Structures are given as C-alpha cells and as structure tokens.
Amino acid sequence: MSSEQTVTVGVLALQGAFHEHIQRFMSLNALSATPSVRALAVRRPEQLEQCDALVIPGGESTAIALGMRRGDLVEPVHAWIASGRPIWGTCAGMILLARVATGGKRGGQELLGGVDIQVGRNGFGSQVNSFEAGVTFPALGAEPFTGVFIRAPVVDALLPDAGTVSVPQEGGINVSSANDSQDGTRPPLEILGWIDEDAMPSAPAGAAAPVWTANHSRPATPVLGPRPALDAQIVAVRQGNALVTSFHPELTGDTRLHAYFVNMALETM
Q1: Which UniProt keywords apply (predicted)?
Q2: Strands (E) located in the chain
Q3: Which of 41, 76, 125, 172 could form a Cys-Cys staple with 13, CB 3.0–4.6 A?
Q4: pLDDT tens sequence across 51-77
C-alpha cells in the first residue's frame, strides 16, 4: 500500500464514547508508521458510504440501536456486515455485533449480528463493578493492553453454526440474521485477547450463579487462538473482518488497537 493512502474510519456518533474513538484515530497521524487516517462521525447512511471501516462505540446498546433505527442506519449496517467490510464494536458495540445477547430489556435486544458469540449485558456487574485489567493480546505485542471495563458485557459462549443452535424465545435473547452468508459458510472465530481469572471482579452481591463460572457451555468450531479456562475471560474476538472488544480501548492513551483496526481496513482496500 502507498504510504500516502488515506483510510477513512467511521465512528457511529449516536450515543456513547464516539468522541474519544475519533481522537484516538486522529492521533495515529502523528505516527509515521501508519497511513493517513481520517475519522468521520457517522449519523446518516450517506456518511457511512464515505467510510472504509466502521466503529460502534461503547455506551448504551439499546439507545444506540434506537438511534440507528431513527437514522435509517440499521439496514445499511446489516449490509455492511454481510459484505465483510471491517467493523469494530467496543463494549455496547460488542453487544450489538453478537449473535445472541442476554440480560436485556423484556422482549430482547435488537442486534446486528456479525460475530458468533453469546454475550451477557452488564455481565461483569453494574457501574460500581467497573475495573481495569491487563489484557493479553498477542497480536499487539508482549505488553498487556490496559482494558477499561465499565458495565462490560461478558462472553457467555462461543457459538456453533447458526443452524445448529437452539435459542430460548424468552429472557431477552435475540438472534440476528445478519450472520448468514450467501454460501452458508462462516469465518472461524479468533480469540485475540483475554484476562487472567484472578483479575475478574467479585460476583455481584446476591448473585447465586455468576455467569462467568460457565465454561465452554456450547461448542464452537472452528476456533483459532488459545482458549482460556473460562469463556468469560475472553474479551476480544475477531471473526472475518468483524472485531469485538468488551472493554473501552478509547479511554486509554494506548493506540495499538486503533492501529490494528486501521490495518484491518487496509487489508480490504
């Protein structure tokens, strides 16, 4: 790729930490090793059309989904995912890009799909259970990435092919149809980042069975990368050109993950 090439990264700017993501992407321009980066706030389909990659930031997933519906963005983003274009969901964005989500409002959480995982909303606890932990992320180098977890979703399970999963119809669980590729095949799930078990917060008061005690409750094939003892330790997953992280990388000064996503976009241009 030419060193003069510009990558335009759209950040969904409806609710949540979109300003911080934009700042992190723009700060990459000070690094000579990266291509020129343009960060664009996306609120309408015509803005999305200008982008090479898209970020769905942390915030409140139901509010973001409602804003997308009002802004006529749901169908364009579904089409974006189905076409295999680069997309990254952080925290609330991870929930929206999951195939199944639990712990949402009655009637379920509207999802976009894209990654074959089941997540639990606020699975690590409420705001008072927020924490920071070092994330082992081999693709970023030996130094752990500082993960900021705020009402963070938990990976309940890695899911097998969509046609083989029996999904409960109640309890706030939705399945998105955006996963289904035309030929019926799905890219493998790649476990990119995880935290140590002893770094996980204590169970919320009164919780009889914390969700992060579940271990490999459903098979998922194929899975690339090391799989920790508990699926809830998994905090970064990639499937094709869809990336999800349960933490907020935009709230640190570490831009390695933003640079990683820009490189994902470069590979598709």
Answers
A1: Glutamine amidotransferase, Hydrolase, Lyase
A2: 6-12, 36-42, 53-56, 87-90, 98-102, 115-120, 131-135, 145-149, 154-158, 174-175, 189-194, 223-224, 234-239, 242-245
A3: 41
A4: 999 999 998 898 999 999 999 999 999
